[in-house]
Amino acid sequence: MARQILIAGNWKMNKGAADGAQLIKDIKAQIGCGCCCGGKSPEVLVCPPFTTLSAVLAEAKGSCLQVGAQNIHWAEQGAFTGEISGAMLKECGVTHVIIGHSERRQYFGETDATVNQRLKAALKNGLTAVVCVGETLAERMAGTTNAVVERQLRGALADISADGMKQVVIAYEPVWAIGTGQVASDEQAQEVHAFIRGLFKTMFSCPSVADNTRILYGGSMNATNAGGLLAQPDIDGGLIGGASLKPADFAAIIKTATKA
Ligand code: PGA
């Protein structure tokens, strides 16, 4: 089965409701029907901050844009100040959620175990999860990239079945490339993506997991470097931060993906 490319925008802590709705208007104007027509169209997803979700969902309605959140708590409700549950996300209308972004790991104490708990909550609530993994510069320099990514994936995906994996997308995001303008080379990215696909062959007895799971690249992807990255056999899309806030750049990446 050919994997459909997914172009996902991670807005991080940018854009309130009014600005977010405007950004969707601008993206729609830039892409026209470019992401929902034709056989090779990519799926397109935007992930705004929680308080922007409703405005963005309203503006995206009837378009090909899908909307996701940037985090989910593992409990359905309760005394977890500052957190949002899967039921709340479902009620709000989102279909996707980013889990385990390196900024969550680095600044908010996210661990492989909590990523796993959040992932289970996403699947239980019928959401598609974009699970992020990636090594720091020190880990890459030490030659431990694959070991780090393997540890993160084994932890994140503990107890997840082949069936559950149908709702999982992986985003490989080398930490040293996030927001730095220093993108991984096509070869560096492809090497890790191929490693992840190979790992899935050993982790899941069902071969369709390795074949069908989409693995996105993230880390300073932009309109200029997207073509080379998306042309790699194991790169199935992008998780895009900075460039997803610029309508022309995001649209250019979507157009590149349509050709990839
Ligand atoms: P960037 O962010 O594209 O700004 O590097 C990517 C991400 O953090 O998901």
Keywords:
alpha/beta; eight-stranded parallel barrel; binds 2-phosphoglycolic acid
Biggest sheet record = 8 strands, parallel, barrel
Give the overall shape, derived from the CA principal axes: globular
Question: What class would the helix/strand composition place it in?
Answer: alpha/beta
Count of separate DSSP helical elements? 11
Molecular structure report:
With 260 residues, the protein is an alpha/beta fold. The protein has a domain of 162 residues: Aldolase class I (TIM Barrel). The chain has eleven helices and eight strands. The protein has an eight-stranded parallel barrel, surrounded by five helices. Strand 3, helix 3 and strand 4 form a beta-alpha-beta unit. Helix 1 runs parallel beside helix 2, helix 5 packs across helix 7 and helix 7 packs across helix 8. The longest helix is centred in the last third of the chain and has 18 residues. The chain is globular and about 45 Å long. It starts with 5 loop residues before the first strand and ends with a helix. The relative contact order is 0.16. The structure holds 2-phosphoglycolic acid.
Summed up:
By secondary structure, this protein is of the alpha/beta class. The protein contains 11 helices and 8 strands. It has an 8-stranded parallel β-barrel, surrounded by 5 helices.
SSE layout:
Elements: E1 6-10, H1 17-31, E2 43-47, H2 53-60, E3 65-69, H3 86-92, E4 96-99, H4 102-107, H5 112-124, E5 128-133, H6 137-141, H7 145-156, E6 168-172, H8 186-203, H9 207-212, E7 215-218, H10 226-230, E8 237-240, H11 247-259
Parallel strand pairs: 1-2, 1-8, 2-3, 3-4, 4-5, 5-6, 6-7, 7-8
Helix pairs in contact: 1-2, 1-11, 5-7, 7-8
The structure holds 2-phosphoglycolic acid.
